[in-house]
């Protein structure tokens, strides 16, 4: 029995790590609701940058949500903001972007929201699927849209002293920009794709770091498979035992080194995952690992959204060749490779910042 439970645990964590980076798991719809307000909390950042990262709050429908915010460097207050979408997995939340945010010293405004059900250690509300249903990925998209419409854009407008010809005008590099840059990590690519498709006036560029292959993101998973996956992960016996095993620091380190990092993961990574590895944070991981984000194809969203897209792969990622169809199938899409494996914003934050600057942000 012990061996069976341990093997189930290994399977679940492999699913978690690969899904969050590779998008191997697919998704289905369920249902949610949410509203808006903000209060500031302290959040420690490294000394790489002069301006601090702050933890702030807002409401979306019935949820109290949190986000990390780094105000613009002096002289960049008018420049277009950046929205960062964190991966979902054991111990993960918006802290995933802390290293990249610290590395960008001369930055425009940067926002990293905690998706609904994530950020428990930050003080965000947990998600109880027995009380409130969510649609995936729509509900996570809607939560970010509330942040953009109620906080990001009003804050940007407040920083303006002149009427500009377009909503976001001309940025520091002298390039015209209609809106935000959205960066989505790993298997959360469907959230970034859907967000861009629904908001062409406020989002002008989309970057996907270590996304699923084009085939995976454009292929729906059968409903029966999704249901079977979800029921197993929510099982009060086997599912609970598996999570108890997988939330241990030793197993997180083992699988991070095996699947996520080109080099070994660091103590900061493990410390952050420890904080978020709590019972209340399991429900979004269960939904994501069951495959609910890929209950349908996102090919139409990709092809109909007007924003230029940048697909970023790690040098150690063997799936990079399978992302070539993004460029072949989409009108305005480019591919690039930087050092790292599957958690590039954490492994190679300076290289990702360089890519952001090349996009004019």
Chart the SSEs and their pairings.
Layout (H helix, E strand, L loop, with lengths): L1 H21 L17 E3 L10 E8 L2 E8 L11 E4 L12 H6 L6 E4 L24 H22 L20 E6 L3 H10 L4 E7 L4 H4 L5 H11 L4 H9 L2 H12 L6 H10 L5 H9 L8 H6 L4 E6 L9 H6 L3 E6 L5 H4 L1 H10 L3
Parallel strand pairs: 4-5, 4-6, 6-7, 7-8, 8-9
Antiparallel strand pairs: 1-2, 2-3, 3-5
Helix pairs in contact: 1-7, 1-8, 3-4, 6-10
Mind explaining what this structure looks like?
α1 packs across α8 (249-260), α3 (138-159) crosses α4 and α6 packs antiparallel against α10. The chain is globular and about 55 Å long. β4 (82-85), α2 and β5 (110-113) form a beta-alpha-beta unit. The chain has a nine-stranded mixed sheet, with helices on both faces. Helices cover 39% and strands 14% of the residues. The longest helix is centred in the middle third of the chain and has 22 residues, at 138-159. It has helices at 2-22, 98-103, 138-159, 189-198, 214-217, 223-233, 238-246, 249-260, 267-276, 282-290, 299-304, 324-329, 344-347, 349-358, and strands spanning 40-42, 53-60, 63-70, 82-85, 110-113, 180-185, 203-209, 309-314, 333-338. It starts with a helix and ends with a helix. The chain is an alpha/beta fold and 361 residues long. The protein contains 14 helices and nine strands. The model is unreliable at 1-48 and 162-166 (pLDDT under 50).
